[in-house]
Structure formats: structure tokens, C-alpha cells
Amino acid sequence: MSKCNAPPKSILKMLKTKNEDNHSTIRTIYNARNKYRISEYCGRSQLQYLMSKLVENKYFHYTISCQKTNTLKELFFAHPVSVQLVRAFPKILIIDCTYKTNRYRLPYLEIVGVTSTGMTFSVGYMYLEAEKEENYTWALGVLRDLLGDVCLHTMIIIDREKALMNTVASKFLESRHFLCTWHIAKNVFAKCKGHFTSNVQWEDFYNQFNRVMFSNSEKDFEDVVRVLHSDFATSMKSVNYVMNQWIDPYKERFVTAWTNQVMHFGNTTTNRVESHHSALKRMLGNSLGNFETNWVKTDTLFEACHTAIKHSFEKSVNIAQHKFSFTVYNSLRGVVSTCALEKLFDEMKEVRCENFDPSTCTHILRRVYGLPCAHELHEYVRADKPIPINVVDAFWRKLDMESMIKDDVDEDIDHRF
Question: Which of 48, 233, 294, 337 could form a disulfide with 289 if both were Cys (CB 3.0 to 4.6 A apart)?
Fold first, then answer.
């Protein structure tokens, strides 16, 4: 039960349920667990035991040690199935640090990806000595080598952390980099709300900033920015903040008019990785764990995630929903993910309206999701023909974990890592 991360009180309850004459106490459970852990270590240190487990479970792992003190400074580890997944679905990577996960107070960097079925998977975790550019350079260097050439068209989403931004720009030259819109809105709320004397004024300003963020075109963007300046001329402190800190230097990384020119499959925030942080902390229970105990619990999360992803693939291949029984979906059922079919179904509602005009199509579904948009779907419906499979981006057609690169790429990763 300890291997399944059952807490001592649950183990004790189970023992007493099975045997009413069992007089064990909670201390008995703690002592038994400690005795078992010592026997597992076989005289090795906690770190030596962890390294042996990483090797035994075929984890990809890399370390940096201090030669003078012979202590571990940084550690990266990734489940072998996670490495398969990121090589199969390299188009979206979301990177963020979390804290209060270990007794050493080291930042815990997590990288997640997204599958064709809309599932989030953890690529790997990294204990970093600090959040400086040299630390991120090592971490993302390992990631880049694991990915190989499949990262050439990767979309990377991060927060506005200068050291991480600089490293991403240098390590992933060919990739596009977005800033999390949720964190930007949160920063604007924290920095600007206090400048307004009434909630009505603040809400008007905040709504106008959101119109800037979600401008559909560069012309719309220029128009709403002009309104922002004119309507809030008496609140120039807030206007200057959003213009100087966000809009002028970073508009191409978060404003919809620019981000919707890129295929990002609807990912514009770091919420997916934040959700994984929450799940991890619930599993860890507290911030007092060491490298070994944290890895055991993280490994459980890896396994549960991989099982759910496999199930989502099988569901897309084998389960056909009634709403997708129309002719237009004939070539796609069981071949593309249910997630893609759902998006097409929603777009089809607009197409089936009596007054639908194909010229009003915004082409968002094509540009952002790699799926046929309203004006294309209109032609298939009118001709009563199925949507050809080749007009759907390959991302949605991949329903397995097969890597897009050969396994031998990891055998010669630069030994400086």
C-alpha cells in the first residue's frame, strides 16, 4: 500500500478492517515503513537510491554536480513514455516553475505538452539551483536534445520571466513563443486596479484592455488602442503601464491579432501546467519531501497520466458518437481525434444556419487549429461529400504514442549535461 502512496492512517484502517484483533498503532505503521525503506536502500544514500531507481525504470535523467562538495546541484528526469509522447506531439510546449515541493527549497521546473485528444502530459521535471539564465540554458538544452529536429515548429508558452524568455529565444530559434494571457491579465489587475477610485471606472478600463488583447485584426487593434488612450486620458498611469510593460514590447506574443496567425490549437495560457502543479502538490502532500520520495509520487502521476492518454486514443478510434454519423464525417470517424470532431461539429452549426454567408468566415479554425473552417465546410455540405482526411492537420490524425524520431538520438546526448 505504501508503493501506491496510501497514507499511514489508511494502511492502519485497512489492517484493522481485515483483522479486528490487530492492535497496531499509527507508530507501528511508521516504523514498518521506515524499516522497509532502510532495507530498500541497502546501505546507499537517498540520492544513490534515487539514481538506481531512475536507471531501473529507464528514466531519461541528467544531473549537474558540484565537484568541490560532490553534491547535486540540478536534476532533470523524464519518464520514457513521456519522452515518446513529446516526440509524437512536439507542437505545443508549456513551461513553468513551481515552488514549495521539496525540503531543499529548489525551484521545480515542469514542462508539459498536449496530445491530439486534448490531454495534457508532463514531459519532465527539473530541480534547478536557481532561476537564472545559466540554469535555464542547461535545462532547455537537455530538452532540445531530447526533441531533436521535431522541435523546429514547436509553439512554446511561458510567463514573462526574463531569464526564461531569453533562454527560450536562444535555444528554440525556429519556434514561436507566446506569453500567458491569463498571467498578463492578472498582472494588469494587480498593478492598475488601485489607480481607480470607482469599480465602474476600473471595469471599463479592464474591459477595454481585454478588447486590446482579443483584437481580431491589426486594424481592430489600432482602433481599440486609440480608444484606450482617448477614453482613459485621466488615468494615464494605468495606460502607460499596459502600453510600456505589455502592449508595445510584447503584443505579437499575446494579442489575438498576431497569435491567431499561428497554429496553436487554442493554447495561449500556462493553465495546463498550472493544473499539473496542483495535481503534483496534492500528491506530495507537503513541502518536506526529498528527491527520492518526491520521485516515487511523481512516477505515480506519470503512470496515471499515460493510462488516461492511452484511453483517450482508444476512445477516438473505437467509439463513434451519433452526432458524427453524418456523411460529412465519414472519412474522419475513427481516424482523427474526437476533440477535432467536436470543433468541426461546433463550426458546422454556423454552416447549417439558413442565412449563412461563406464570405463572413474568419478562417480561425483553419489558421489556429488546422481544421477546415466554415467556408470550406459549406462546400462539403452543399455537395454532400465527406471531409477529405488530407485537409485535417496531421496533429489531429495522430492517435498513438509512436515517436516521430528514432530512439538513437538520445544515446549521444552531449555529455556536458
Answer: 294
Q: How confident is the model at residue 2 (pLDDT cuts 50, 70, 90)?
A: low
Rounded distance, CA 114 to CA 123, Å?
10
Q: Which amino acid is at 417?
A: F
Q: Exposure string (b/e) for 175-191, b if CB count within 10 Å is 16 or more?
A: bbbbbbbebbbebbeee
Burial 349-385 (b: 16+ CB within 10 A, else e): eebeeeebeeeebeeebbebbbbbbbbbbbebbeeee
Residues with Cβ < 8 Å from 338, sequence gap 6 or more? Answer: 117, 315, 316, 319, 321
Residue 28: which residues within 8 A CB-CB, separation 6 or more? Answer: 12
Whether the per-residue pLDDT at 47 is higher than 60: the answer is yes
Cα–chain center distance at 391? 26
Q: Which residue has the higher pLDDT, 7 or 283?
A: 283
Backbone angles phi, psi at 339, to 5 degrees: -60, -45
- pLDDT score, position 66: 79
For residues 242-270, give the mean pLDDT: 97
- Cβ–Cβ contacts within 10 Å for residue 8, how many? 16
